[in-house]
Amino acid sequence: MDKESGFKRYLKLDLLPTPWCPGCGNGIVLKTICQAFDELDLPKDGTVVISGIGCAGRSAGFFNLDSVHTAHGRAIPVAEGIKYANDALHVVVVSGDGDLLGIGANHLLHAIRRKTNITVVCYANEIYAMTGGQASPITPHNTKTLTTPDGNPDYPTDVQFLFKHHNGYFARTSAYHLNHMKKCITESLEFNGFSFVEVRTMCIVNYGRRLGYKNSNEMLMHYKELYKINDYAEELAQDEIGIIKSSS
Amino acid sequence: MTGEKIQKRKGIVHINHEYCKRCGICVNFCPVKNLEIRQQKLMELNRCIACKMCQRYCPDIAIEIEEVDEKTVGTGKSGHRNGG
């Protein structure tokens, strides 16, 4: 296998195609995670992938590694248990924003506090996509969704501030910025401590469609226009993607 | 395609039609408009420049680019190729 298709050894190719809708960004993130694994050459028998429930939760089954598909919101406790039981394993959590920041937010908070050496990759599509498009904890203010037809009255959670007083690794990236995403995931896997990568992906069927996007490519291009890269900053603005890494 | 300048072909697009969901992301990313969805099927138009943008952005791992030398392939070969 050449350099570009080497990531395929981390995927169960016989289970493809993925169950996601046409134009879903989850496949791009799944592929980039595998490319990051390939770049670090992680051992297949020394890496565990844990996922919660939701569209993104389906991705754990596609990794050609040991994987656990846990209860809703409980991906991080299972990952922490695995890490504490066997410290030599690389433990990666892949799940969505609803699962990690909505139902499992309490576990996230305490994992950050405990500084468990695990990596969390959050597929942030700003919606509860699998159940039909309800507003999630990071749906932007005034956004029209199924449960907020007059615009979301609440303001989104900003995960970066949870890391402020606990040394950790936080990165926000988008599905358009592939090189940046790969860099963020690779760095987070190498980081010694709790690391969280928030990947903004597009959901066209249950989210973008209601916002007036014609296809998922328009959403990808929107990320290109919206986000500016600002790595190793102290704080990221709403329209910035980048890495926040604590000094110690 | 008629009346357009024939570009040198530098790659063959192998499309896995079992994986492809015809979302059209690759069609929009292709800088030479080599890909097209016709009759619910993704087709290649034989002018790939092997930039691999479609391969990189395909969410379903359905596209693979094979880099080729112009002399060995020639131009104007009809039809797309199945692969994957």
Give a structural overview.
The complex is a heterodimer of chains A (248) and B (84). By secondary structure, chain A is α/β, with parallel strands linked by helices. Chain A has a single domain, classed as 3-Layer(aba) Sandwich (Rossmann fold). In chain A, the strands form 2 sheets. Chain A has an 8-stranded mixed sheet, sandwiched between helices. In chain A, strands 5-6 form a two-stranded antiparallel ribbon. In chain A, helix 1 packs across helix 5. The longest helix of chain A is centred in the first third of the chain and has 15 residues. In chain A, 49% of the residues are buried. The mean pLDDT of chain A is 91. Chain B has 84 residues and is of the alpha+beta class. Chain B has a domain of 58 residues: Alpha-Beta Plaits (2-Layer Sandwich). Helix content of chain B is 17%, strand content 21%. Chain B has a two-stranded antiparallel ribbon. A two-stranded antiparallel sheet of chain B has the order 2-3. In chain B, strand 2 and strand 3 form a beta hairpin. The longest helix of chain B is centred in the first third of the chain and has 5 residues. About 7% of the residues of chain B have low confidence. At the A-B interface, helix 1 and helix 7 of A face helix 1 and helix 2 of B. Chain B: GO terms for molecular function: 4 iron, 4 sulfur cluster binding; metal ion binding. Chain B: This is Putative 2-oxoglutarate oxidoreductase, delta subunit. Chain B: It comes from Candidatus Jettenia ecosi. Chain B: Keywords: 4Fe-4S, Iron, Iron-sulfur, Metal-binding. Chain B: Pfam families: Fer4_10.
